[in-house]
Amino acid sequence: MNPLACRARLRSTRIRAPWQRLSAACAALALSASGLAASPAGTPEFYVDVVNGSDTSGNGSASAPWKTIKFALNSTVEPRLLHLAAGTYSSASGEVFPLSLSARTSLRGAGQGQTVLSAPTPDWLVEAQSAQFSPPAEHPILEGLTLRGAEVGVRAHGISNAQGIVSVEFDALGIGVLLSYGSYNTLSLSRVRIHDCGIGARMQQVLIGSLTVTDSSIEACGTGLKMDAGSTGSGLVGHSLTFTRSVLRDCALGIDLSHGSNLAVSASFNDSLLTGLDQVGRIVGNSASGQAALSLVRSTATANTTFVDVTTQGFASIALSGAIVWNSGAGGGLDPDASWYVEHSDVEVPVGGSGNLSVDPQFDAQHPTQFRLSAGSPLVDRYTPSGPGPTYGTDFEGDIRALDFDGDGAALVDIGWDERTRLVLTASGPALLGSTLTLTTHAGAAMPACTFLAGAPAALPLDLGNWILIDLAGAVLLGCGTTPLSVGLSVPGVPSLSGLRAYAQSGGLPQAGAFAAALQASNALALEVR
């Protein structure tokens, strides 16, 4: 079932296959696939439309929306969910920044690039504060928006919101997200795009704070992530960052960790890619009582100028587990001023430790910017850490992080951020409104294959090792043939589709005549319309 078809079909009868294949549940599926979930019963919802709304004659309903967000905030009480129609909300349209959000207030736009909050420097666009409350928030603070052009996109302090920020673009800001000051700050970013900012995300002088970044990208910023913990009187407290299935690319400095006395800062990169950075990381500390820790777990750092520089009076540790550090500076990028723990990793300069390699990763030349492993890479099926194996989850494409690629009956994790599949599915470009994509299934040898599209990952072909389970009620067959197999996918030019997510995956038969033993699934592609 294709969620893009659902949304488009509700507004146009001229869309053709595969968009025309609908089901009775299409509206709910479209919402779930986009990540813009339906509002729970009892949550008051109001509507704002910068183009067609009015603060004088409107009443905040869908049929009579207000014009400005500021008016809506002043006219309603929490909890509340404000739907923001497509358009640019700026001081020219009557907005007064910063927009102050506290407790259970959420802003939901029409999608990245469709609903835009914009202000000149030095304004903050959104300030989220004093949001420690019970029960937890039912909605993300921000969802389906673009924040552009201000000094700070979101400033959060004293905040604890379990839903965080989802599917938001931070474009050309001084700082994209700033967690600053206060005794406790915790925030999650999911499916966000931060680019062309001075600093992508920063935690500043927070005694106890955590930032979680998942399925996101930070690109072309001066500094991607900055954590400066300052000092505290007694006890060891500080900041923590978790960066999962995400990309840090083309910044002058990737991660900047600094601490004062009695402060600890830590950053963990899991199943992530760090590339095109002048310097991957920097650890700075001016007190012997401070600590800093950096870890790369099943992640890839490659095509960088230098790796990590350490200048601290305190304790600094860097851990690599199942990681690739290749082409990232002289000496393999391992600064001797830090304590290193390296296991089951591939580092350019040989290091001791369990299961470590120093070999060319052999990235797939067909995907030069994604640094996938080629079929012949020595890093496939090589991550075997000591102790009982945890649940490793998935890589950035949704592939299970323990596949039996070599067919020896043992499902092992690959080193680096990519789990190699026998079939590889790629898209010719992003899913832009009104565009046509080509989805191509590659394989080491010609084989029969089919490509599917679905509104949710659960409806895609599920690799069960020897069989593939396909939810025919939830997936659309785009085409079958022999690899390399290319199928076209047209995205309707319907603005309401922006922010919607669809998922594509292929299944193939590597060994002719051995159906039950050889049927394999490709990686899963997440296509977010913008």
Q: Can you walk me through this structure?
A:
The chain is mainly beta and 530 residues long. The protein has a domain at 423-528: Immunoglobulin-like. 5% of the residues lie in helices and 40% in strands. The strands form 5 sheets. It has a 21-stranded parallel sheet that branches. The longest helix is centred in the first third of the chain and has 9 residues, at 26-34. It starts with a helix and ends with a strand.
Radius of gyration: 24 Å
Give the count of helical stretches. 4
Q: Report the end-to-end length measured between terminal Cα atoms.
A: 20 Å
Please name the CATH topology of the domain at 423-528. Immunoglobulin-like
**Class computed from helices, strands and strand pairing:** mainly beta
